[in-house]
Amino acid sequence: MESERNAPGRSRGEGGAVLTDTYGRVATDLRVSLTDRCNLRCTYCMPEEGLQWLRGPDLLTDDEVVRLVRIAVTRLGVREVRFTGGEPLLRPGLPGIVARCADLEPRPSLSLTTNGIGLRRTAGALREAGLDRVNVSLDTLRPEVFHALTRRDRHQDVLDGLAAARDAGLAPIKINTVLMRGTNDDEAADLLGWALDEGYELRFIEQMPLDAQHGWERSDMVTAREILAALRTRFTLSPEGDTERGHAPAERWLVDGGPARVGVIASVTRPFCRACDRTRLTADGQVRNCLFAQEESDLRGVLRSDAGDEEVVRVWQAAMWGKKAGSGLDDPSFLQPGRPMSAIGG
Q1: How far does Cα 107 stand from its chain's mean position?
Q2: Cα dist. 207→136, 178, 224, 227 in Å?
Q3: Distance CA 71, CA 18 (A)
Q4: How far is CA 134 from the centre of its chain?
Q5: From CA 145, how far away is CA 289, in angstroms rounded?
Q6: Which residue range(s) make up the domain with 212?
Q7: Is the dihedral of CA 334, 335, 340, 344 positive or negative?
Q8: CATH number assigned to the domain comprising residue 151
Q9: 210-232: per-residue pLDDT in tens?
Q10: End-to-end Cα spacing for the chain
Q11: Number of domains in the chain
Q12: What is the pLDDT of residues 229-273, one digit of tens each?
């Protein structure tokens, strides 16, 4: 008889199963990409002309998205669901998807990662549908730098969207910031001061090799060590609680004694693979067991073959069972995934 460690889908009680791997990690956090399209053209993500987008029939339908989330939550132990893209606010059926997922039992935590451009018109509806909170990407306080980074003049729209999210009660609001050497790397302390004033929680993220152009260079990346040094020129930072961050990707620091805090996600220089609890679903229905995985497992095909939930569970468990120990970023043989971040989902 196989041991518990050698059997994917070990029991979690009441006949349920989990998304586990051979290293004992259990995925309870699901990232669901709803589209690969985006209304920005960030230089570290995609070329100015954009990319070849997925065709409509290739995308999961609203019903298929909800079914997969339902299976993940009710059959596989997922507790947190994050909707991503591309830009998820471009998905016409987003409020309905959120509402149907909020009705699941047990109810998962529901959040959204967005560039914020569409939040001014959607924040209230999303909150009413059941969305709990948002993460908003914003790399600069300077409109001209925003235009240079995103190739769009939408800086004020993001600020207005953040205010709308706050007014709607989508809290805590987290800001995701990537610093680019020679572009916005002088703004770390200014961004933190602004976030503290506005009541947002700022998280700096090391730039990762997930651009469509495959132009990422480690030497160009602003590291977590550099970010913390820049912040300490103006603020006193102390570790929040235990130095072990567990499943959380961000190392969090109390600012000037707290309670305000700032996070730094050192995905490259200090990866959190050992305690990773994530599983990813692309907009075309592929399971990715790691952000940097080279392989995917097709759930869309399983759904469209009229398979039952048990078959979806089996394929999803098998996909996660083969998860590698780490991302391999420090391995000289590391290969960047074929799909960029916009197609994988954040």
Answers
A1: 20
A2: 16, 6, 10, 12
A3: 11
A4: 11
A5: 35
A6: 4-344
A7: negative
A8: 3.20.20.70
A9: 555 666 677 778 999 999 999 99
A10: 39
A11: 1
A12: 999 999 999 998 765 555 567 899 999 999 999 999 988 888 778
